[in-house]
């Protein structure tokens, strides 16, 4: 994989050809995207994969009737889990198993993480942050595999949660369409680092 080439060629594709992507391939892409970083390795992301006609229709209605929902092979509903830290006991044990944490530090880690997530803003920030890191990984991995994607924020969160029976601890962060398609115009300009970065 040529990472820079993948980054440069990734575009937000809004027009898709009819193309079926198997669930095996979609699962493989998700498995690779799960190598994303996350605070304390909490892996806050959850994903609903919308790939049937019935599910596409429901999401289409909840996403301002954007036709790419129907035309794309599938759409990922990217969710951030507010309660991901509930698994910290298991994560601590996994860290110990892999040599990342001394056994005697286990209880301290668990206490520290639980204290951090007593703050509701910390819960939400980390849920969205973890899910977003996963989402970017998923788009780059999909691009490298030959698939076009488009991140979307144009949807009604309440309707999406209702349509797919999503529990309250999962925050709809974005949608990502995936399929075969292309952009035929030039990339819009990007600000250079000199306009947004400051060395201190």
TrEMBL record:
Gene3D superfamilies (UniProt xref): NADH Oxidase
CC cofactor: FMN
UniProt feature coiled coil, ranges: none
One term of GO molecular function: oxidoreductase activity
Protein name: Putative NAD(P)H nitroreductase
Domain Nitroreductase: 7-180
EC number assigned by the record: 1.-.-.-
Enzyme type, top EC level: oxidoreductase
InterPro entries: Nitroreductase, Nitroreductase-like
Source species of the chain: Mammaliicoccus stepanovicii
Domain of life: Bacteria
Keywords associated with the record: Oxidoreductase
PANTHER family in UniProt: NAD(P)H NITROREDUCTASE YDGI-RELATED, PROTEIN DRGA
Family membership noted in the UniProt record: Belongs to the nitroreductase family.
């Amino acid at each position: 994989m040529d990472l820079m080439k993948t980054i440069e060629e990734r575009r937000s594709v809004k027009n898709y050809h009819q193309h079926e992507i198997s669930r095996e391939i979609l699962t493989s892409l998700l498995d690779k995207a799960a190598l994303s970083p996350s605070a304390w390795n909490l892996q806050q992301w959850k994903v609903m994969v919308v790939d049937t006609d019935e599910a596409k229709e429901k999401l289409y209605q909840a996403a301002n009737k954007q036709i790419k929902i129907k035309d794309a092979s599938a759409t990922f509903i990217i969710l951030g889990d507010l309660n991901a830290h509930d698994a910290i006991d298991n994560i601590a044990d996994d860290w110990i198993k892999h040599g990342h944490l001394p056994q005697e530090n286990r209880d301290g880690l668990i206490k520290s993480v639980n204290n951090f997530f007593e703050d509701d803003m910390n819960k939400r920030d980390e849920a969205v942050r973890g899910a977003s890191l996963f989402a970017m990984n998923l788009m780059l991995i999909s691009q490298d595999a030959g698939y076009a994607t488009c991140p979307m924020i144009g949807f009604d969160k309440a309707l999406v949660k209702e349509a797919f029976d999503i529990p309250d601890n999962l925050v709809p962060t974005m949608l990502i369409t995936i399929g075969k398609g292309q952009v035929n115009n030039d990339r819009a300009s990007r600000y250079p680092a000199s306009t947004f970065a400051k060395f201190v």
